[in-house]
Amino acid sequence: KLVPPLWKAVWRFPQRRMSKHTDAAADVILEKKGCAGVITLNRPKFLNALTLNMIRQIYSQLKKWEQDPETFLIIIKGAGGKAFCAGGDIRVISEAEKAKQNIAPVFFREEYMLNNAVGSCQKPYVALIHGITMGGGVGLSVHGQFRVATEKCLFAMPETAIGLFPDVGGGYFLPRLQGKLGYFLALTGFRLKGRDVYRAGIATHFVDSEKLAMLEEDLLALKSPSKENIASVLENYHTESKIDRDKSFMLEEHMDKINSCFSANTVEEIIENLKQDGSSFALEQLKVINKMSPTSLKITLRQLMEGSSKTLQEVLTMEYRLSQACMRGHDFHEGVRAVLIDKDQSPKWKPADLKEVTDEDLNNHFKSLGSNDLKF
């Protein structure tokens, strides 16, 4: 499959108007419970996909809780048990762009502002990443101080398959993972499951899902907790899960290959390295990469290389430029068509070949937007 079939479920539906957060049927529920502010992404039928209205409500409430002396931590979770958040409502954005309704500049700007707010949050921020956590869902969790995965967590950044790039700060956190793991995850969209999300360094803690409700209760019951008190509760549950008794990482046996093949400075060289390696693992990754948008692959490699020495804010400014270039281009809309609308899984990329993606094309994606740049 070109991309996880669950993405189709996420992006099939238009945005609904959002009810006020006091309404039980709201797309996002914002509650003060005990010592904590609790954010519940509440679109379980749509795998808690993120809409612009949700982004706005979360951002506004996060800023209020940050200033509130009675709020000692922030917890974010997904309703329904299947997903934390499987991404943004991308089909809506593509369709709006085609209809000349310019929501993309606003959606990406406000989503990235929220990613930065999570990364710079002055209160301990605990993301319970239970279930599908992809794209926009990664942006809501990975930049926070604590990320708690369960055995049902399914992590991926599969954007190169729809003519996009691993945004929401992917250019910041991916190159900082061990070795070249982040480059591999970014270019192939490889999925990590359960304990491996912790072993890869994406989650900070691992908890068995049957204990998740208890963990939340214990956090809410803390009295004026410090960051250390919160960390201590998380550590206790983590230790109980016995995850550290078995340190095996599903990609461990392939890490040497990943590190050598993905250390090249061009996508063409990475492909050549995989061919030269010739192992079944390398050839499988080659097959996957060859299905991806050539433009997306080149943008993504450069995004990570540049992001490796930038701050999160600098990365988000760079990614905002990339997002707007992708909206103007061909591949994003074609990827959405092939995967989410016609579902033929046969995107016709333009250019169709890596060698046709010129340095000039690439440089244009990274160009400043002047007064329209994302600023913090």
TrEMBL record:
Its EC number is 3.1.2.4. Pathway: Amino-acid degradation; L-valine degradation. It catalyses: 3-hydroxy-2-methylpropanoyl-CoA + H2O = 3-hydroxy-2-methylpropanoate + CoA + H(+). The keyword Iron does not apply. SUPFAM superfamilies: ClpP/crotonase. GO terms for cellular component: mitochondrion. InterPro entries: ClpP/crotonase-like_dom_sf, ECH_dom, HIBYL-CoA-H. It is an enzyme of class 3 (hydrolase). One of its GO terms (molecular function) is 3-hydroxyisobutyryl-CoA hydrolase activity. Signal peptide: none annotated. GO terms for biological process: L-valine catabolic process. CDD domains: crotonase-like. It is found in: Mitochondrion. Hydrolyzes 3-hydroxyisobutyryl-CoA (HIBYL-CoA), a saline catabolite. Has high activity toward isobutyryl-CoA. Could be an isobutyryl-CoA dehydrogenase that functions in valine catabolism. Also hydrolyzes 3-hydroxypropanoyl-CoA. Belongs to the enoyl-CoA hydratase/isomerase family. PANTHER family: 3-HYDROXYISOBUTYRYL-COA HYDROLASE, MITOCHONDRIAL, 3-HYDROXYISOBUTYRYL-COA HYDROLASE-RELATED. This is 3-hydroxyisobutyryl-CoA hydrolase. It comes from Rhinopithecus roxellana (Golden snub-nosed monkey).
